[in-house]
Here is the input.
Amino acid sequence: MSDMKSVYGQGKDNYMFKIRLKSTILFIWFIILTIICLLPIYALLINATRSNNEISSGFTLIPSNYFTKNFKNMITIDYVKDAFKPLIGYRNSAIITCSATILTVFFSALTSYGIHVYDFKLKEISYTFILLIMMVPTQVTSAGFVEFMIRLKLHNTYVPLILPAIAAPAVIFFMRSYLKSSFPLDIVEAARIDGSGEFRTFLTIAIPMMKPAVAVQAIFAFVANWNNFYTPSMILMDGDKQKQTLPMMVQAVQASDKFTDFGIVYTCIALSIIPIVIAYVLLSKWIVGGVALGGVKE
Amino acid sequence: MASAAQRRIKSISYAKYGYIFILPFFLVYFFFQFYPLINTFVLSFKGNDSEGDKFVGLDNYKAILFETEVDDEILLRTSPKLEGVSGEEKKALIKAEQDKQAIQSQHEFFKKSFGNTLILWFGNFIPQIILSLSLAVWFTDAMLKIPGKGFFKIVMYMPNIITAASVAVLFLSLCSETKYGAFNQILHSFGVVEDIESNNSKDFVRFVSGTWEPRFVIMFIQTWMWFGNTMIMLMSGIMGINPSLFEAASIDGASSGQVFRKITLPLLSPIMVYTLVTSMIGGLQMFDIPFLFHKGTGISSINPNVRTVAVFIYERFHAEHKMYGYSGAASVCLFIVTLCLGSVTFYLNRDKDAIAKKKQRKKLAQQAKIKNKQFGGLGI
Here is the structure.
């Protein structure tokens, strides 16, 4: 009897040991991956605090005290000042991103609500159509899109960067799935009996109920628009610095041969990513949760 | 009372609101996306530069897809016998020759950029899917006791959120082929790069201007940026699998490898297809990082070894002589490739059981029909 017990105990110990060993090895592996993920960004921030000479003297992980000088150089030296204007970049990116995000979220909610709540002849067809066009890559239409905008003389304006945000098939798909799972149609009927108009029902009842889906999609639309480099650089082709978005400012740092002071280069890049990193740190829980939600598409 | 009101409301048709609610989407879609898609096709059949309005048929496709053989006759007339022809004719002949060469170079450019796109896509997708899948399995394994899973997830997703343009310029600076480049400095301390003070770029590892070095750097950046995203999507897929299956397997004594092969992978296939298709579309569109990963002004300074199809399309638009035709043709080719790859992926991963069942049902229905006919076609 006691023999049996000890064999069983040994097996259990062995098993626990294996699990613990595996967990430890994986933990170390995760730490390594974490370092790989953070190191480039850490190196960027460190190098932004170092002078050009310090950077040339070798790679280090210890910050220096040159950041204010780099920053001052950035806003005073002419060639830097002309090419990289962070404040104007923030402003323009914020204008485009905020308007596009609001349009995307509002109209996608409206469209998905329309398809979900009402019965009409073209309902199924239009939804199938939306699912189909989700697959069309944006880059493919860009040639025709830019040429069309040039013909309409809308290039070099923000219209082609903001208005198309109304049509976001993937967001509609997501919101429709959300409505299906958590928006009973009885609510609409109850609202009608209470004398609420259709638009009022949508605005005051449906939108608040869709809040989680709206928030997740707003975050993603915001990030996608903020980081978008392709479309703005296709549309804003006249090189007017006052109109350019933040990623385009960063491109100026890369394209210009004059940027030889690496301290300034790193400071410029750091300024371009700091807002989004702060936003991520604050919203990371929702963002990671949102990716998981978005992944559960059938 | 209420039932009367309810009946009245039920009798009202609200269909028109459905149309009103979805109208803005369709208006904007057709104006800003559908027409441009058609317009891309139209452009691909039109001429380039000064011949922008001329209809040229399939010439653009021919130019970018096929090796255009230089017409012997023209070559014969242009090179040795050039002295014999008069001014106007000579000019025309020279122009014809130049056109031929320009067309040939379009083909070379497109072939190269298409190859680069495939190389860069495979090079980032394969390590990315291996890394993400293994991480997703480990993260969802309830038996493993790993602290701080939430923290790891957040950190691993972070590179995805950072502006790709900034990431490209950051890595460009870190990879710099001067004494300022961090990677070359690190290699110097290991003795790989010998002379760090020299100004000759040949003494450095050519992370930016080489052939395979920049490709590897870009593959690394893409993997670095996207593995967290893929991991979280796959994780949500794994968590959607019925946990009792895993429990049953562990009671039956299945090893973790067996569980992965026999349960996780087959049941994960719908979400894998989704990941594959989105990643494929994203990979074929790869633009920001290959486009910005070079130093210097102007398009000509782009390293031809990392030029992708999207960069090719962009360049044709921003060239001094606008080449909308080539741009459109390249876009259409990209579209067709995406469509084919997408359909193939879906086809390979289709639900075979469901299809077999459907076939069987059809067969039964047919047999029933035949039987009916045998009885004099008096079936219902």
Remarks:
- Chain A touches chain B through 104 residues (CB under 8 Å).
- The mean pLDDT of chain A is 85.
